[in-house]
Structures are given as structure tokens and as C-alpha cells.
Amino acid sequence: MTDFRDLMRLRRSVRDYEDREVPVSLVRELIADACEAPSASNRQPCGFVVVADRDMMRRLSDESKKNLLNDMKTLKSPMLRLYRPVLKDENFNVFYNAPCLMYITGPRDLHSAVKDCSLAASYLMLSAADRGLGTCWVDLGSSIQDPEILAELHISEDQQIVATIILGYPREIPQRPPRSEPKILTIIG
């Protein structure tokens, strides 16, 4: 097992994967580790959807790209607009052709769901890095609205997709990007 401080620096956003499946047993271990994350009032609200079918991942990518392009008509997000050229590219896969995709969901009506699921996603990504897997949180892949697709994924209307994580065996680990100094607003006491 990797020292935790080293592990934090080892985990990178990987967007280039070997053409190699991730065993379901390993995915289950990652999910078990993700469930060790704290949650408000210990509610443990996270649901997990695993997709290891490349055709389905392509459908999900296309669905998300279509919805994001439609959202750009009304949203004034400069960050989202930066992605317009790649979202219009029919060959671009928002999941970077990774062999496995995981959605982490939480109840829409639970105020802490986004925080709880985000913590679980962090634990999952650290666990994956410890096992030699690469991950990347791909928010571009979370815009799934088609009711039939959501039904195939077993994501009910009362659930929201909080985290979209791709994983697989990395071709290489990207270099660690520079980090800014912490923005400590104040220390009282």
C-alpha cells in the first residue's frame, strides 16, 4: 500500500488508457472503498452505476454532448463554451475511450448529496490510484436526460448524477501540474 501523502500526489486525471478491461471484482473493491467516505448524518446516500460496454459508453457520450450543446443556448457559462468545438466533433468521446465508466448518484432532495457523493468519488479515485488504475472525473459526461437511457442505467427521477468517473489502466501517468499556494483567508485563535 502506498503512503497516503505519496498517493495524493500520485493520483492524476488520466485521459489515455490501455485497451484492457477492469475486472468487475476490482470495480467492486473500489466501490467498497468509496463507501468508507464520510457522509452527513452517516446517511450513505450514494448509488453506483458501472458501465463497461463501449457501445453504451459511446451512446452516453453522444447523449451528453447533445444536451450540453443545447444547454449552451441558454446558459451563459464561459467555461462550457470553451468545449463547444470538441462537443460538436462527432468523433470526440467525452469518456476518452476508457474501458470503464462509473456514475455516482445521490438523492435530489438530500441537501448533502453532492458533498457526500463527491467525498465518495475522492475515495474511489484514491483507491484506484493505489491499485495502479487511472481515473478522471469527467463532468462533460454527466448530462444524461433521455428517460430511456436513464432507465437502462437504473437512475430514477429522484436521483441525480453527481460524479462521472472514468477508469482503466493508464498508458502513462501525466505529470503533476503546478499547484497554487493555499488561499488561507484567516486563522483565528
Whole-number mean pLDDT:
93
Q: What composes the largest sheet? A: 4 strands, antiparallel
Outline:
globular
Rg value: 17 Å
Distance between the termini: 37 Å
Order of helices and strands: HHEHHHEHEHE
- What is the SS-derived class? alpha+beta
Classify the oligomer: single chain
So, the CATH homologous superfamily?
NADH Oxidase
User: What do we call the CATH topology?
Assistant: NADH Oxidase
Percentage of residues assigned to helices: 25-40%
Instruction: Indicate the low-confidence ranges by residue numbers.
Output: none
- CATH class, named Alpha Beta
Strand content: 5-15%
How many strands? 4
Count of alpha/pi helices? 7
List the domain count as a whole number.
1
Structure description:
- This protein is of the alpha+beta class and 189 residues long.
- It has one domain: NADH Oxidase, CATH 3.40.109.10.
- It has helices at residues 4-10, 24-34, 54-71, 78-82, 84-88, 113-130, 147-152; strands spanning 47-51, 100-107, 134-137, 159-168.
- It has a four-stranded antiparallel β-sheet.
- Helix 2 packs across helix 6.
- The longest helix has 18 residues, at 54-71.
- It is globular.
- The model has no long low-confidence stretch (mean pLDDT 93).
Keywords:
189 residues; alpha+beta; NADH Oxidase; 4 strands
What's the structural blueprint in terms of helices and strands?
Elements: H1 4-10, H2 24-34, E1 47-51, H3 54-71, H4 78-82, H5 84-88, E2 100-107, H6 113-130, E3 134-137, H7 147-152, E4 159-168
Antiparallel strand pairs: 1-2, 2-4, 3-4
Helix pairs in contact: 2-6
